[in-house]
Design goal:
Length: about 400
């Protein structure tokens, strides 16, 4: 049986071609014995495993092996004995895709860790986890990393052949006029910005398939598999979660009315809040709070996770202001605290900097310390930062 998996591994690695090398590969300590790569569907979890295998191991040595738990063999047999056969054959790195689909997967991975001290395991999983996932033995054993979709920087690099590097938030706030001088002579970011909002966040747009259909399929899988399976939600409630997501996308106002949402999907306010949390974990929405507040309080805004999702659903509430606010929050939420202020389009970042998302010439009475983040210009000036720049944060 092992021979069959080696042949599949060799075929996948030899035919794998990644047009963009994900930066996460260089940030992972591959020497660790148990590595978790978490990320939503469509961002390239499988690709990063195959990319690692291709860069670091010749398939002919049979030291590294990729497996996918969708294979019925693992549903019937598990992976502990299989890992033992792999080690006995000289294997040292086992790459397990979608590990969470295995029965008692955490216990099985821990058993492998203790039973085969010379084996290194890298596994992928969804960001949707049980409430006590961080307290498990596997969480303590694992070095965990998160994979996100393409940043605007990565998208531009792919489209143009450039190799622009990242900038910190402080760099952009303080030195945006200087930074743009290193970018604008080499590329016109706005030429690619609209395309990125439509399809650039999810790497599978590079495949010769219908992107929108593929993204809708991934969104359904996030709800049907990741949320229902990991949160143990009964199937009969799936339609409520899907309807909730559509209602959020359809709304022209990102401020949620939880009572109205509860009535619309025939459930309680508390259940709506739980569903919102599940959707956030699945990277389908982002919840933005007022300063000093957090879940389970009602968020100040609920927006889809990224603009690609907004265009895929194609809801009537789609407008440029909502799209740009969604884009900004998506660039910032990973490493910064984003709070919604009461003035339309304004956010406070890390409790210090106030940003207002708007058109350059929009007349607004803003406090003097508030910076304008504008979406209708390519070149900024003092106190005005073009919004595309925040796509260079990662």
């Amino acid at each position: 049986m092992l021979e069959t998996f080696f042949r599949t591994h060799a075929y996948l690695v030899e035919n794998f071609n990644a047009p963009v090398r994900r930066a996460l590969i260089d940030n992972i300590d591959w020497s660790h014995r148990m590595i978790a790569i978490r990320g939503p569907r469509g961002v390239g979890r499988t690709s990063i495993l195959l990319q690692f295998a291709k860069e670091f191991f010749d398939p002919r040595t049979r030291k590294c092996l990729y497996i996918n738990t969708n294979n019925f063999y693992f549903q019937a047999r598990g992976i502990v004995d299989f890992a033992g056969e792999f080690v006995a054959a000289g294997g040292i790195v086992l790459l397990i895709d979608q590990a969470f689909k295995l029965h008692n997967w955490r216990e099985q991975l821990c058993e492998c860790y203790h039973k085969y001290p010379l084996l290194r395991i890298v596994y992928t999983t969804t960001p949707v986890e049980e409430a006590d996932a961080d307290d498990t033995e596997l969480a303590r054993l694992s070095r965990r990393y998160v994979l996100h979709g393409f940043s605007f920087r990565e998208f531009i690099n792919l489209q143009t052949g450039n190799e622009f590097h990242t900038f910190t938030y402080s760099n952009i706030i303080r030195d945006h006029e200087y930074i743009q001088k290193s970018i604008l002579p080499r590329v016109q970011p706005m030429k690619y910005f609209d395309a990125y909002q439509h399809y650039g966040y999810y790497p599978f747009y590079l495949e010769n398939t219908n992107f929108t259909e593929g993204l809708l399929k991934a969104m359904n899988s996030m709800m049907e598999v990741d949320i229902l399976f990991n949160k143990q939600v009964e199937l009969k409630y799936l339609s409520r979660i899907k309807k909730l997501l559509y209602l959020l996308a359809m709304s022209e106002d990102s401020i949620p009315n939880v009572s109205e949402l509860a009535d619309a999907i025939s459930t309680s306010r508390a259940t709506v809040m739980n569903y919102l949390k599940y959707l956030e974990e699945a990277r389908l929405v982002n919840m933005v709070y007022r300063e000093g507040e957090s879940f389970p309080k009602k968020p100040a805004a609920v927006m889809l996770h990224d603009p690609n999702l907004m265009y895929a659903i194609n809801a009537p509430g789609l407008n440029q202001q909502n799209i740009m606010e969604t884009y900004l929050v998506n660039t910032l939420w990973r490493h910064h605290t984003v709070n919604r202020l009461r003035r339309e389009g304004t956010f406070r970042i890390d409790g210090r900097t106030d940003l207002c998302v708007c058109e350059k010439n929009r007349r607004m009475k803003l406090p003097p310390e508030t910076l304008k983040v504008v979406y209708d210009v390519e070149k900024g000036e003092q106190g005005i930062i073009p919004i595309w720049m925040f796509g260079f944060l990662y």
